[in-house]
Amino acid sequence: MAEGLRERKKRRTRQHISDVATALFLERGFDAVTIAEIAEAADVSVNTVYNYFPAKEDLFLDRGEDAVDRLSRWVRGRRTGESAARAVLRELHEAVETLSPAVGLFEGCADFTRVVLEVPALRSRLWQIRQDGLGELERTLRAEVAAPDDDPVPALVAGQLDWLYAALTDRISAGMAEGRDPREVSREALALLDEMEDLLGERVLDYAVRLT
Amino acid sequence: MAEGLRERKKRRTRQHISDVATALFLERGFDAVTIAEIAEAADVSVNTVYNYFPAKEDLFLDRGEDAVDRLSRWVRGRRTGESAARAVLRELHEAVETLSPAVGLFEGCADFTRVVLEVPALRSRLWQIRQDGLGELERTLRAEVAAPDDDPVPALVAGQLDWLYAALTDRISAGMAEGRDPREVSREALALLDEMEDLLGERVLDYAVRLT
DNA sequence: ACCAAAACTTGGGGTCATTGCAAATTTGGG
DNA sequence: CCCAAATTTGCAATGACCCCAAGTTTTGGT
User: What InterPro entries does the database record attribute to this sequence (chains A, B) (predicted)?
Assistant: First the structure.
């Protein structure tokens, strides 16, 4: 009874609505599709849509949740002797090299990105997700180095790591939106990563080195 | 005829609407005030409000425009032998010390900030303004160092300078929103500034030194 | 001062996102 | 098969925002 039919059905319904909505958005653009149309296409009522998704934006940016704590996870998972920044750089490097969807490097991401970039409401929603991730990362750093509440440094370092991620994905998004080949964009992104590492201050690069 | 009656009247009407709206928002909150109420209070029609302001958010964030190119102006106005980053740090230092409204250090900013922080639409709008400023700054840096279009560094340095400004004002906003004394918040902000300067990489600190 | 064009304002009439509410339906358990 | 809880739905509002056509006001000549 831990996983009733009810739960499964709800998850399926939610996914179905999200899929239908995403397809419509990609096909005709975010603004050109109404909630009523989505509801009809998904064969549910408008109220049911709102039952699962608080706002229209959430229908498109459904997969944004695990991006919220990605940086935190990377930092928590850093290796012994590795700082937070170096762990993030390493993970980013790997993600870019493997054309990971985590950094937006997959065929078909272009259409997705294009829709996001041209709709202010979606850009805002992405920014909100990024903000949440930043807060999360700051808490993580604070906990990892056992910093007192009034120490401003964890917030600053979090800001720098967040900037790494954001600057990289922004560039990748821009590249993909131009319709370029993922591998070419990846190569460019690797160069950007090196450049960014070179720009970072030593104190940032050496912050929160894992001792154990 | 360079400054006809029409122009003056328009400016006055616009300002009047904005003032009325801001007062209502501060008094009762952003969401609790409708455009219709603002129009009535300002003694114009709803359509006239939309004539001057593209969206409700713009009624509250009317003064955000000169913030868009503040960083650019600071960079362009840097002294001989001074880098872009040092100019920004100097200007920020001065703004914080003089309790300049440019960094949100004035009595009464607290109410303003509180409204912004609790309404997603306003946070988004502020972020948009910040994004515009970032683009502007990147263009400025690119022009100042005569960088080729495919040089990624100006964008990265712009991101770092933008981060300086944003991290500082975020902290100040948070402090002011707590109702603390501006001078106390200012003192804390100065410490934060020193910390940030210390975290910046040398390459960022020395970018775009003015030669002439 | 007088007129026609240009610029502003207004009223009225939509579209659509989002919400609240109560009735109708479905599901899990006994 | 029946009840109670969870879901879904229909209905009605609210309010942002857009479009258009009909006033009004301002401007630039005359």
Answer: Homeodomain-like_sf, HTH-type_TetR-like_transc_reg, HTH_TetR
